[in-house]
Amino acid sequence: MVGLVGGFALESTHATAAATDTTGTGWSAYLRLARPKQWAKGVFVLVGPLYGAAEGKAVDWLVVALAVVAFGLASSGCYVVNDIRDRDADRAHPRKRRRPIASGAVGVGAAWWYAGALLAASAAVGAVAALGPPGPRGGWLLAAVGLYIVNVMLYSVSLKHVVIVDVLCLALGFCLRVLGGCAAGGVEPSTWLLNVTLFAAMFLGFSKRLGERRGLAAAGADVAVTRQVQADYTNEVLRLALGLTAVATLVTYAGYVQARGDHFTATLGGWGFNLLWLSVPPAVLALLRAVVLVEKGKYDDPTELAWGDRGFQGAVLLFAATTALAIAAV
Q: What is the pLDDT averaged over residues 113-127?
């Protein structure tokens, strides 16, 4: 597995920033403004359908794929609105000042039109996807996409300035992705699954807050200027929250694995063994790897960590491989 053999090689934060923060002009600036890398969060839309399919449920993957696209377009539109509102604060940030709006590569008026087009496209794709599922599932899918947009807009307007609530808002966005994917795939979401998603997403949110503090402190910048809510956080509070949510994530995932033992247990040499348990060690490895890197201030955004650190990528790939093995074996 890449990055696991011979130790975990660290990627250069400066190289990552240089690769992702080039200002650019024209269509490339608009592409960067939509933050296509954030579409990777669409994997949360797939979680329910994948586990549902493993348990023998019929899944319409075309509808699920449309749901992924709808959430991706919605997130891009919401990011544009957020960048419009944060343009002044972004100019004071050593990395964010290179974002298209903060740098002047995209004008504010054009950005508003762009955000509207992305959100309209999301609504259109979501409406098409909602025609697929029978019964009320299509309505639930549309509701999940709509609530996702409302949640992010409330976050951008005011809730991102409220301590703890800001991270909880971000976590609810991931939960809504999971619920939308379950509606698209016709899979009933379990409480275990939603709990894992909530705590894992809060872990990512607190990681981002602590990573920002570490990175900006190293650069000699004032964290409260670049993000107002940071005035109410401290390193100690964020480290405690990071540890609590990491433990909660692992405990709830272990509970989910145990609760699904009947579906993933295989007979090996006369013994019954829950194959899904094999995914627990790489999950632990990925979370603790993230904690180490955030604590060192290597990354100030979990998405950049996911794209830039080979060790974390290796742990995630191993988690995916063991999960796929458990699914394929049942």
A: 93
Give the chain's mean pLDDT. 83
Mean pLDDT of 18-23: 41
CA 264 from centre of chain: 26
Tell me which of 137 and 232 has the higher pLDDT.
Answer: 232
Report the distance separating Cα 245 and Cα 302, nearest Å.
Answer: 15
168 versus 132: which is more confidently predicted? 168
CA geometry: angle 252, 253, 256, nearest 5 deg: 90
Burial grade of 101 (CB within 10 A; 0-12, 13-18, 19 or more): buried
Kindly write down the DSSP assignment for every residue of 228-285, as one continuous string: GGGGT--HHHHHHHHHHHHHHHHHHHHHHHHHTHHHHEEEETTEEEEGGGGGHHHHHH
Asked whether residue 49 carries a pLDDT value surpassing 80, the answer given is yes
Q: How far apart are the first and last CA of the chain?
A: 24
Rounded Cα distance between 94 and 90, Å, is 8
What confidence tier does 210 reach under pLDDT thresholds 50, 70, 90?
confident
The fold for domain 11-189 equals Tetracycline Repressor; domain 2 (1.10.357)
The C-alpha atoms of residue 222 and residue 327 are separated, in whole angstroms, by 48
Domain ranges of the chain: 11-189, 190-330
Confidence at residue 143, expressed as pLDDT on a 0 to 100 scale:
93
- CA 73/CA 41 separation, integer angstroms: 12
**Distance between CA atoms of residues 173 and 197, nearest Å:** 10
Report the distance separating Cα 15 and Cα 17, nearest Å: 5
